[in-house]
C-alpha cells in the first residue's frame, strides 16, 4: 500500500497533552555515565523474566560491556555481564582496549537472541593494529556465543626479507645503520609463534658478507642482539649490483632458509653510486624474474658533505626500487636520520606481506565491522555496517551462518560518487519488503557531505544491484545516519521508510534535526514530507533515534517514537507519532525527560519499543539516556460515547409545567447515557471521566445567554464525575426553558467528556470524539401539519461606486478595495424559520463585514416580512482575475414554493490602479540672466550656450509588476519666434537594460565637436507668463520601461543647457513668482489627469526660476497623461501607458 500522509508538526502539541504512554510509575535504571551507560537499549524478555539489555561502550577503558536490567519487580539495579574480556577470536592477537562493545545491539527478528558488536576491536599484526571490528551473539539467557570478525586480517603471509647494507668506507658514521635495523626489526611479525617472516642481513663493499641467514633466527630478541653487533665491513668499492645478484641467488636459496612459497623482499641501503652499474639491467631483470620486491634507500650524507650532485645517485637507486617507485624508494639526508624511516618502511613492507605484489592491500583493515547491525526479516542473514572500509567510504557485510559476503568498493562506488572517501556507508541499516522481494537499505551520512540512502538487492551470485538512492538536502545534516522501516498495517509490506537527519540546521542556526518520510514502491522511494518535531529555538538533534511501536494505541496501525536528546537544554524529549486510518501521521505526546527526573540528560538518545514487558498486550517503550535507562508503560485506551433522549421530544412554550423561582416555565427532561469500548478488551478498571453539560452551545461557540437552565443548579453548565464501563451508565436531568424570542433554532445540549486523572489506566483515546451535541426543537407555527411552506425572494444590488453601467469595470487600488452589496430577503408565504443567506465568492475576494439595515426582533421571517442588510467584501490582489463573482442564496428550514428567485449571481468587471508615482529633482532652482552680458553667437563649447540644467525623473512602481510602461518627457526647445530655450546634451537611464530612452534632440548640431554660429531675434514675451507646449515649441524624449518590479524605483537623468542669448535678447515683464521646492512627489492615478506638470521654465524678466512640481497649477514644459491600464490575464500582470 502507498499511504498519503498528512503530517501535523510536533510544535503544535502541548507539552501537557498525554495519550496512552504513561509517565506515572516510570522505572529508571541508573548506570555509570562515564561508561556511556544507556548509549544503546534493547528489550529482552525471556522465559525467566523481562529484561532490558543496555550498552555501555566506554566501560573499563572503553572496552565496553552490556548490562541486564530487570523490568519487573521493584529493583532498579542492573547487572554487568562482564563480556569484554571473553569476546575473542582464537589464534588472533586481539586488542580490546577501545573496543566499544555494546555500541551496537541488534535483536534477531526470527528468534530471541541478540547481536552485540565492538566495532573498534583491534587486531595486532607486528607493531600494526588493525580495526576490523568484532561481533558476538547472546542467546536468550544472555550467554555469550563464539565471536566472529568478517574482516579479520591474515597478519602476514610467508615472507623472506633480505637487507642489503652498504658497508663501504664512505658510510660514516656506522652506528645509524645498526639503529636502522634495530627499529625496522620490531615492526615485522617475527617470533616463535609468528614464523611467517624471516630475515637475513648482507653487508657489501668490494665483496659480500652474510651477517646472518634467513633461517638463523626465529626469535626477535636474538635477531636484535645479532643486529646490534654488526660492525662495518669497509672497502674502497661499492659493488651494489654484485651484492643484489648475490642476494637474489644465494640469500633466498632453500639452503639458506628461503621458502619457495614465501614472498621475497629485498631492502638495499647505500650511500653512493655503484662501481658495477654496467650489470644493472641484467641483475634487475633477474630479480623481476624471481618476483623479488625491492626497496631502495639512498643515504645522501657523503654526497652532501663533499658537495657532490645527488642526481645520478637518486636515479640509480630508483632504478633498483620496484614500481611504483614512490612507494618503494626512500632518500635520507644523512646516516643519522636513517632510522626515522624504519617505521614507514615496515608499514610498506607489511602492506605487501603475503601478496607478492607491490600495491596496497589495505581494504578492510580499518573497516569497523559492526558499527551498525540489522537482521534480515525474510532471510536468515544479518547486515553489518563497515563504515571504515575502503578508506572510510564504507560498505555492508552480509553474514549468513559462518559465511560472510563483503561487497567490494566497486559495488557502491558509482552511486556514492566518492571524492574524499568519507561517505561512511553502513552507518545505519534496515530492510524493506514488497511481500516477495527484500530490499536492503544502507545509510551513508557523509556522502557528498549531505548524506545518502542506498537501496539495493543481492542476486544468487552475491552481487548487489542498486535499486534506488536518495540524497540529503542540507550539508552536514547527517541524512541517513538513522533508518527505520515501517509496515503500517502489518501486511508484511513496507509502507514507509523514515530517514533521520539529526544534525539538520534550521534558519536559527540550531541543530533542530529532521525526520524525512518516504513511501516505498518496489524498492523505489518517494518523499512524503518530514516531521519537524521540536520548535527550533534550541539544539535538539531530533531524529537521532527512531523506533517502531507495533500498534501502540491498538487501532490496527503501527506507530513511531522519535528521540530528541538535546532538546530542553540537553535533558532530552521523546515524541510519539500515531498513524491513523493509513492517511494521518500525527503527534500525540511530547514527553520531556525532565518531567520524569530532573537529573536526566540526553533522554531519547536510544529507543526500543517492540515488545510488551508487562503482559497487557500493549508494547512498551524503553529510552536510553546519559547514564540511565527509562522504562515507560503503555496504557489501555477507552473510547467513551454519549447518547441522549428528550421527554417530550419538542419544546412547547404553551405548556408550562415546571416551577422556577415562583413562576411557571416550560421544561423537559433529558436522559444522558455513557458507555465505553476498550482496547485491549480487558483493561484495568472502568474509565474515570468528568462530563460537562452545556445548554445552547455548539462545537464552535456558545450563546451569550442560554435559553435553558438545569434545574439542579439554575445554570446553563453542569459538571459531574462518572465511572464509565462497557455497559451504559445513565443520568437524568431536568431543564427549565427561559423566555426567549428565538423559538426557531433548536436548543442544543453539548456533552463533553475528559479524563479525570491523566495518570490512570485506561486513558481516553485522543483521536476519538470527546464532545457530542444534541438538539431538541421548538414546536413551529405552520399549521396543523407543522410543515412550513415558504416563498423566499432574494434581491441583490451591487454598490457601483458611481459607475452608471453594469458593464463598467470597478477600479480597485491599494487604498480602495471594498466591494459592497445590498441584500434584501422577503418571505411571501408561511413562516420561514432559520432563514439564512449564504454567499459564495471568487478567489479574488474575501469577506470583510456585514451591516444590518433593519434589525428584526424575531428570528422567524413571517409572511410579507422583509430583511435588508449590506455585505462588504475586500478585493485580494493575490488573485488578479478580471471578474469578481459573488453568488447569493437564500434558504430556510421550510419547504420552498418558488426556488427560482432564491439565488442571485453577480459578476463585475475589475480593473486595478497600478499606484505608479513620479517625482523629480534638479541641480538648480532658479536662473539669473544678466542683460548686460554680451550675447554669444559663435558657440565653440557647451559652456558658450549657458548654465547646465540637470533634472532626474523617478518612476516609482506600486504593488504590481508591469510588462511595459511608456514615459514621454516634452521639453520646450524654442519659442514661437524660433529663439532656442533648452539644449539637450544627454539622457542617462539609471536602471540598466530595463529602461531605454530615445530622442532626436540630443546634441544635434554637435556643439563641442565643431564651431556653430547661432542668432537670436528680438521677441516680445511680455504677455507670456509661462513657457509650455502651448506657448513654445516642444520636442519629446520617449522612454520605455520593461518588466518593472513591484515597489521599485527607476530613474532617468536628463542634462540640458539654458540658452543665455534668448533670455538676454527677448522683452519680458519683471514678474516675481514663487519657486516650488525640488523633490516634491505626486500619485499617478488611472485616467486622464488635466493640469498636472513635472517641469519647465517660468520667465521672470532677468530672473528665470526653474520650477518642478507635480500637480501644480503652474504648467512648466508639458502635460502629464496616463492612459488606461489593462490586465493581461494570461501574463498575470498589467500593461499601462504613460506620457509626460
Instruction: Give the CATH H-level superfamily of the largest domain.
Output: Integrin alpha, N-terminal
Low-confidence stretches: 1-16, 354-361, 852-858, 1070-1140
- How would you characterize the largest beta sheet? 6 strands, mixed
Number of separate domains: 5
The strand count comes to 74
Structural shape:
flat
Q: Would you write up a description of this structure?
A:
This protein has 1140 residues and is mainly beta. It has 5 domains: 6-15 and 29-148 and 367-634, Integrin alpha, N-terminal (Methylamine Dehydrogenase, Chain H, 7 Propeller), CATH 2.130.10.130; 159-350, 3-Layer(aba) Sandwich (Rossmann fold); 637-776, Immunoglobulin-like (Sandwich); 789-912, ntegrin, alpha v. Chain A, domain 3 (Immunoglobulin-like, Sandwich), CATH 2.60.40.1510; 917-1139, Sandwich (Immunoglobulin-like), CATH 2.60.40. Helices cover 8% and strands 40% of the residues. The strands form 20 sheets. The chain has a 6-stranded mixed beta sheet with strand order 15-14-13-16-17-18. A hairpin with an 8-residue loop joins β32 and β33 (573-580). α2 (175-184) runs parallel beside α9 (342-350) and α4 packs parallel to α5. The chain is flat and about 130 Å long. It holds the Pfam family FG-GAP. It comes from Poecilia reticulata. InterPro entries: FG-GAP (IPR013517), Int_alpha_beta-p (IPR013519), Integrin_alpha (IPR000413), Integrin_alpha_Ig-like_1 (IPR013649), Integrin_alpha_Ig-like_2 (IPR048285), Integrin_alpha_Ig-like_3 (IPR048286), Integrin_alpha_N (IPR028994), Integrin_dom_sf (IPR032695).
Amino acid at each position: 500500500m502507498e499511504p498519503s500522509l498528512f503530517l501535523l508538526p510536533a510544535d503544535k502539541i502541548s507539552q501537557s497533552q498525554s495519550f496512552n504512554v504513561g509517565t506515572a510509575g516510570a522505572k529508571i535504571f541508573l548506570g555509570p555515565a562515564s561508561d556511556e551507560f544507556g548509549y544503546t537499549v534493547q528489550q529482552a524478555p525471556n522465559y525467566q523474566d523481562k529484561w532490558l539489555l543496555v550498552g555501555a561502550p566506554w566501560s573499563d577503558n572503553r572496552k565496553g560491556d552490556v548490562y541486564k536490567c530487570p523490568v519487573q519487580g521493584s529493583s532498579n539495579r542492573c547487572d554487568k555481564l562482564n563480556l569484554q574480556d571473553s569476546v575473542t577470536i582464537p589464534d588472533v592477537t586481539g586488542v580490546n582496549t577501545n573496543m566499544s562493545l555494546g555500541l551496537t545491539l541488534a535483536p534477531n527478528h526470527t528468534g530471541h537472541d541478540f547481536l552485540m558488536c565492538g566495532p573498534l576491536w583491534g587486531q595486532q599484526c607486528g607493531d600494526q593494529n588493525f580495526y576490523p571490528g568484532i561481533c558476538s551473539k547472546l542467546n536468550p539467557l544472555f550467554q555469550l556465543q563464539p565471536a566472529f570478525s568478517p574482516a579479520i586480517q591474515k597478519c602476514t603471509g610467508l615472507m623472506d626479507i633480505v637487507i642489503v647494507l652498504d658497508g663501504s668506507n664512505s658510510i660514516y658514521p656506522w652506528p645509524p645503520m645498526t639503529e636502522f635495523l634495530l627499529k625496522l626489526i620490531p615492526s615485522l611479525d617475527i617470533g616463535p609463534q609468528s614464523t611467517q617472516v624471516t630475515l637475513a642481513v648482507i653487508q657489501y663493499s668490494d665483496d659480500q658478507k652474510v651477517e646472518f641467514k634467513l633461517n638463523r633466527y626465529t626469535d626477535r630478541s636474538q635477531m636484535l642482539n645479532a643486529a646490534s653487533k654488526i660492525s662495518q665491513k669497509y672497502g674502497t668499492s661499492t659493488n651494489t649490483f654484485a651484492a643484489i645478484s648475490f642476494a637474489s641467488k644465494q640469500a633466498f636459496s632453500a639452503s639458506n632458509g628461503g621458502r619457495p612459497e614465501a614472498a621475497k623482499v629485498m631492502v638495499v641501503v647505500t650511500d653512493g653510486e655503484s662501481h658495477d652499474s654496467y650489470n644493472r639491467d641484467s641483475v634487475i631483470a633477474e630479480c623481476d624474474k624471481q618476483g623479488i620486491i625491492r626497496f631502495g634507500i639512498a643515504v645522501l650524507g657523503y654526497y652532501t658533505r663533499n658537495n657532490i650532485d645527488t642526481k645520478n645517485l637518486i636515479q640509480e637507486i630508483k632504478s633498483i626500487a620496484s614500481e611504483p617507485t614512490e612507494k618503494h624508494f626512500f632518500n635520507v639526508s644523512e646516516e643519522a636520520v636513517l632510522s626515522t624511516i624504519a617505521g614507514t618502511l615496515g608499514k610498506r613492507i607489511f602492506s605487501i606481506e603475503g601478496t607478492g605484489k607491490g600495491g596496497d592491500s589495505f581494504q578492510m583493515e580499518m573497516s569497523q565491522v559492526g558499527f551498525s547491525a540489522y537482521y534480515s526479516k525474510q532471510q536468515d542473514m544479518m547486515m553489518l555496517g563497515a563504515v571504515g572500509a575502503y578508506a572510510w567510504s564504507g560498505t555492508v557485510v552480509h553474514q549468513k551462518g559462518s559465511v560472510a559476503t563483503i561487497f567490494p568498493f566497486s559495488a557502491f562506488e558509482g552511486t556514492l560518487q566518492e571524492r574524499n572517501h568519507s561517505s561512511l556507508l553502513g552507518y545505519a541499516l534496515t530492510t524493506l519488503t514488497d511481500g516477495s522481494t527484500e530490499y536492503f537499505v544502507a545509510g551513508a551520512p557523509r556522502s557528498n557531505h549531505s548524506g545518502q540512502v542506498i537501496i539495493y538487492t543481492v542476486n544468487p551470485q552475491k552481487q548487489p544491484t542498486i535499486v534506488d538512492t536518495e540524497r540529503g538536502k542540507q550539508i552536514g545534516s547527517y541524512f541517513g545516519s538513522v533508518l527505520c522501516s515501517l509496515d503500517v498495517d502489518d501486511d508484511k509490506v513496507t509502507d514507509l521508510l523514515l530517514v533521520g537527519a539529526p544534525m539538520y540546521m534550521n534558519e536559527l542556526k540550531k541543530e533542530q534535526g529532521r525526520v524525512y518520510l518516504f513511501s516505498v514502491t518496489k524498492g523505489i522511494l518517494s518523499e512524503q514530507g518530514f516531521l519537524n518535531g521540536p520548535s527550533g529555538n534550541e539544539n535538539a538533534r531530533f531524529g537521532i533515534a527512531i523506533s517502531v511501536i507495533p500498534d501502540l494505541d491498538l487501532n490496527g496501525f503501527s506507530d513511531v517514537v522519535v528521540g530528541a536528546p538535546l532538546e530542553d537544554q540537553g535533558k532530552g524529549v521523546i515524541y510519539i507519532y500515531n498513524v491513523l486510518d493509513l492517511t494521518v501521521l500525527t503527534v500525540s505526546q511530547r514527553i520531556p525527560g525532565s518531567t520524569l527526573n530532573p537529573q536526566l540528560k540526553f533522554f531519547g538518545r536510544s529507543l526500543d519499543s517492540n515488545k510488551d514487558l508487562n503482559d497487557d498486550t500493549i508494547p512498551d517503550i524503553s529510552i536510553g539516556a546519559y547514564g540511565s535507562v527509562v522504562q515507560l508503560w503503555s496504557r489501555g485506551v477507552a473510547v467513551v460515547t454519549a447518547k441522549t433522549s428528550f421527554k417530550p421530544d419538542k419544546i412547547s412554550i404553551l405548556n408550562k409545567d415546571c416551577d422556577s423561582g415562583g413562576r411557571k416555565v416550560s421544561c423537559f427532561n433529558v436522559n444522558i447515557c455513557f458507555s465505553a469500548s476498550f482496547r485491549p478488551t480487558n483493561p484495568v478498571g472502568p474509565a474515570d471521566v468528568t462530563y460537562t453539560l452545556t445548554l445552547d452551545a455548539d462545537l464552535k461557540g456558545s450563546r451569550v445567554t442560554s435559553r435553558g437552565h438545569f434545574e439542579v443548579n439554575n445554570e446553563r453548565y453542569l459538571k459531574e464525575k462518572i465511572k464509565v464501563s462497557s455497559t451504559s451508565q445513565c443520568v437524568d436531568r431536568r431543564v427549565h426553558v427561559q423566555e426567549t424570542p428565538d423559538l426557531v433554532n433548536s436548543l442544543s445540549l453539548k456533552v463533553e467528556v475528559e479524563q479525570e486523572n491523566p495518570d490512570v489506566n485506561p486513558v481516553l483515546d485522543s483521536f476519538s470524539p470527546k464532545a457530542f451535541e444534541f438538539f431538541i426543537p421548538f414546536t413551529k407555527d405552520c399549521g396543523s401539519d407543522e410543515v412550513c411552506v415558504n416563498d423566499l425572494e432574494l434581491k441583490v444590488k451591487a454598490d457601483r461606486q458611481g459607475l452608471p453601467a453594469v458593464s463598467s469595470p470597478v477600479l480597485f487600488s491599494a487604498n480602495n478595495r471594498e466591494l459592497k452589496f445590498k441584500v434584501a430577503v422577503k418571505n411571501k408565504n408561511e413562516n420561514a424559520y432559520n432563514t439564512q443567506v449564504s454567499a459564495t465568492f471568487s478567489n479574488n475576494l474575501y469577506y470583510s463585514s456585514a451591516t444590518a439595515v433593519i434589525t428584526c426582533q424575531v428570528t422567524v421571517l413571517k409572511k410579507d416580512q422583509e430583511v435588508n442588510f449590506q455585505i462588504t467584501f475586500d478585493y485580494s490582489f493575490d488573485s488578479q482575475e478580471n471578474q469578481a463573482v459573488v453568488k447569493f442564496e437564500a434558504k430556510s428550514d421550510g419547504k420552498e414554493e418558488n426556488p427560482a428567485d432564491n439565488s442571485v449571481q453577480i459578476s463585475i468587471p475589475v480593473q486595478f490602479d497600478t499606484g505608479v508615482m513620479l517625482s523629480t529633482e534638479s541641480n538648480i532652482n532658479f536662473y539669473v540672466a544678466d542683460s548686460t552680458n554680451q550675447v554669444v553667437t559663435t558657440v565653440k563649447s557647451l559652456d558658450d550656450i549657458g548654465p547646465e540644467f540637470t533634472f532626474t525623473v523617478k518612476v516609482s512602481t506600486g504593488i504590481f509588476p508591469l510588462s511595459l510602461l511608456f514615459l514621454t518627457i516634452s521639453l520646450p526647445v524654442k519659442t514661437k519666434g524660433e529663439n532656442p530655450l533648452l539644449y539637450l546634451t544627454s539622457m542617462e537611464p539609471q536602471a540598466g537594460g530595463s529602461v531605454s530612452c530615445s530622442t532626436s534632440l540630443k546634441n544635434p548640431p554637435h556643439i563641442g565637436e565643431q564651431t556653430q554660429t547661432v542668432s537670436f531675434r528680438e521677441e516680445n514675451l511680455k504677455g507670456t507668463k509661462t513657457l509650455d507646449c502651448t506657448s513654445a515649441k516642444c520636442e519629446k524624449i520617449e522612454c520605455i520601461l520593461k518588466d518593472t518590479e513591484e515597489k521599485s524605483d527607476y530613474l532617468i537623468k536628463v542634462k540640458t543647457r539654458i540658452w543665455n542669448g534668448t533670455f538676454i535678447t527677448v522683452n519680458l515683464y519683471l514678474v516675481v513668482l514663487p519657486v516650488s521646492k525640488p523633490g516634491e512627489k505626486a500619485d499617478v492615478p488611472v485616467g486622464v489627469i488635466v493640469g498636472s506638470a513635472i517641469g519647465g521654465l517660468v520667465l521672470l524678466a532677468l530672473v528665470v526660476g526653474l520650477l518642478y512640481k507635480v500637480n501644480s497649477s503652474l504648467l512648466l514644459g508639458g502635460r502629464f497623461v496616463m492612459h488606461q491600464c489593462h490586465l493581461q490575464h494570461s501574463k498575470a500582470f498589467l500593461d499601462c501607458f504613460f506620457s509626460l
